[in-house]
Amino acid sequence: MSGHDEYRKADGWNWSLIKILATKSPAHLDHAKRNPDDGDTTSRTWLRSVHTLVLEPEVFGRDYAVYRGEGTRASKAYKDWARDNTDRDLLKLDEYESAKRVADIVRSHPVAGPLVTGNGVSEVSIFWTDPDTGLKCKGRADRIADQPDGSIVLADLKTVDSVDARHFGRMAAQNG
Prior knowledge:
Layout (H helix, E strand, L loop, with lengths): L2 H7 L5 H9 L2 H9 L7 H14 L4 H4 E4 L8 H8 L5 E4 H16 L3 H6 L2 E10 L6 E11 L5 E4 L9 H10 L2
């Protein structure tokens, strides 16, 4: 089981639950807690692969398999290949190549690059008990990056489909 799987299964309040309570209703929160969204999609797999290629490229081959054959996911060749790779997340070659391009851009960026490639730790699960309420809490840091001056930077990797200021601002507001 990956660190992310352990984090998802651990009891505790996190940003996702707080956001439901703050933007929807207690009934929505109750539903979400009783019916966690554990479904996977090709989009979620791709987003996780970007995270892995940016933050932990050394484990990519352990966690992902890349289909280099012809045809769609509905093809017999793909289905046969997928049956042999049930222990890893699956990407088609074009998905892997696009995720790799994103990772290469981030890792070579003059500001972001040193945050994700320098000293530090990635994909860190953090657990604590809130001293005021006694509630169990949890969070997951994408990257805790050590800085030359002795400080640390907490970096959160997000993918966006546009960097237009209005679109980006709207997405940030919608996602809290």
